[in-house]
Design goal:
This protein is an all-alpha fold. It contains six helices and no strands. It has one domain. Helix content is about 80%, strand content about 0%. Helix 1 crosses helix 3. The longest helix is centred in the middle third of the chain and has 37 residues. The radius of gyration is 21 Å and the shape is elongated. Pfam families: DHC_N1. It comes from Chaetorhynchus papuensis (pygmy drongo). One of its GO terms (cellular component) is axonemal dynein complex.
């Protein structure tokens, strides 16, 4: 019983820490007004890395042993643990999926940033790819994600035009 109580305390601490990570990941991002679309990819890569590290830790033998002991003891703390484990898995899958889809746009980011204002040749392919992402991605096809992406693409186009005007 004493061992079980100690392990439950450990799991409650982990639960609190994981909840904090999940809450922070859902907060609205503060970004500069002129940030380009590559920042969107970097955000999701960073998030994927964080959640994959967290998943690796949760699936480690040390954690699995503690969870097994608490399962054998029929601990009530495991209900919250299982919910959080599921939430972390969903968040990791979302980040991985979003990185995969955003990488399809990566080939447009360089030309968009370095082109002259007559960048129209890249726009149809870029929009087709964004449309493809919207139609096929199980996670990225929300208005929130699409708005953020279009805002960053527009920012990049504006920055490219400003740079062109200042050089000219």
């Amino acid at each position: 019983t004493e061992v079980t109580e100690k392990l439950e305390e450990v799991v409650m601490i982990w639960t609190k820490q994981i909840r904090q990570v999940l809450v922070e990941s859902e907060q609205i991002r503060r970004e500069a007004d002129d940030v380009g679309p590559s920042a969107e990819l970097e955000h999701w890569k960073s998030r994927m890395s964080s959640f994959n590290s967290l998943l690796d830790e949760i699936k480690s033998s040390r954690v699995r042993k503690i969870i097994s002991i608490l399962q054998a003891a029929r601990s009530k703390t495991l209900k919250h643990w299982k919910e959080l484990d599921g939430s972390i898995t969903i968040a990791a899958n979302e980040a991985k999926d979003n990185v995969r889809y955003l990488y399809t746009l990566d080939k447009f980011f360089g030309p968009l940033a370095n082109a002259s204002p007559v960048m129209m040749e890249h726009i149809p392919s870029l929009m087709n790819t964004v449309c493809l992402i919207y139609c096929t991605s199980p996670y990225y096809n929300t208005s929130e994600h699409m708005t953020s992406l279009f805002l960053k693409i527009t920012n990049q186009m504006i920055n490219t035009c400003k740079t062109y005007l200042c050089e000219g």
